[in-house]
Amino acid sequence: MAGFWGRRKREQEAQAAQDATLAREAERALVAADERIRTAADELVFAEAELGTSLTKDLKAALEAVRTHLREAFHLHQLNHDEIPDTDEELRTRNARIKQLCDWAEDLLDEKTAALAEAVATVRNAPQVRAKVRSDAEALTARLPQARSIIERLATRYADSAVHQISNSAEEAEQLIAFATHGADVAERRRAAKQNEEANLALETATEAIRRTSVILDAVEDFEIEALRAESTLAEVVADSRGDIIAARSAPKVPEVAEAITALEQALESLAPAGSRNDPFAELTQLRSANTALDDAIAKAHYRQENPLPSVTQVQHSLDDADRQLGVARGLISGHRGWIGADARTRLAEAERLRVDIPELIQPEDTREQALVASRRVAQLAAEALQLAQHDIDSARPQQQGWGDDGWGGGWGGGRRGGGGDVMGGIMGGLVIGSILDGIFD
């Protein structure tokens, strides 16, 4: 008994120490959160002055929410120190809630102030950003003559459809450069007029215009390289296509292969003559599509040669066999419902689900093979359901009490002892599951 009370006292002392630690943590968290709110409020004032109210509205809303919840924390702390005695559990719950509210408040304010850090940095670095916009604009302007030269050269070599995507790139780049420099000027004037929000927006759009200009001019220079690669690849694909046509002559003689060969020949004939303006990108796409169609047709023909399409009669015979299997399984399970477990019922349900869609697959040639596979699967599932159901019945029968065993019907017409037990057991199994005979033989 002395050991019990000693252990009890140690547990109480440990709990008291934990409660004291939690109380100190709650007080520190309350002070830290209150200071964080005051600091965040100061940061909001500076941010609104630099960014305007639109970009700082999230921080302002967060401050309002935090102040509301911190009032709850101060109220709980006051309850801990009023004149009304509190239980240890009440104090523990309040201090845990105070700490939770304060931690949440600091996390939320940290998140919102961090989100403004990049925008504030941009504002404070606005003079440097404007200077970079103007210097980038000058550098990009110097690239415009080269871009125009490339476009003119490509236009004499390739079809209009090939160079369509870059034909107006020089003009677009020139307009974007003008827009960027104008945006930098607007940003400077707005900043001088203390219209910081409009100044930020103008500077952001100017920076984006410079970025887009650089992408456009890079695309013009890259296009020439890609066009040359496309021409080289086109020559290789043409040679391969002619070889594929020769090889396809030995493929199975089916209409699909003949049509694919004709389509590839027409694609080769439609290529622009050597020395003329062509569109290597479009011609590559056309040849690749025709090549792929020929490969698919040959592969399908070889497969069908090795795996002949089943006839409608063959599929119907397989479906009839599946229906017979289904009928037997369905009858056995229906007649012995009280003994049949989940596995057999699941196999039967899946077989019946697959059976519903098979008739729609028989007539179309493209799905006839699928119909044969599905019908065989139905038969397999039905056979499994039958096997599982029979196993459930065989497992349950030894547990049934034959009527003849206790002298109720010693022989039912002179038959073997207990001979009626199996029959009645099957009937009872199906009925007891529905509670129809509950208690009739009690």
Write up this protein.
The protein has 442 residues and is mainly α. It is 81% helix and 0% strand. The protein is flat and about 95 Å long. The chain starts with a helix and ends in a 10-residue tail after the last helix. The relative contact order is 0.05. The C terminus is likely disordered.
What would a concise description of this structure say?
The chain is mainly alpha-helical and 442 residues long. It contains 14 helices and no strands. The protein is flat and about 95 Å long.
Q: Mean pLDDT score, rounded?
A: 82
**C-alpha Rg (nearest Å):** 42 Å
* End-to-end distance: 54 Å
Q: Which outline best applies?
A: flat
Fraction in helix: over 70%
The number of E-state strands comes to: 0
Low-pLDDT residue spans:
400-442
Percent in strands: under 5%
Topology:
Layout: H1 2-51, H2 57-80, H3 88-124, H4 126-157, H5 160-163, H6 169-192, H7 196-248, H8 255-269, H9 280-306, H10 312-335, H11 342-357, H12 359-362, H13 365-396, H14 419-432
What distinguishing features does this structure have?
442 residues, mainly alpha, 0% strand
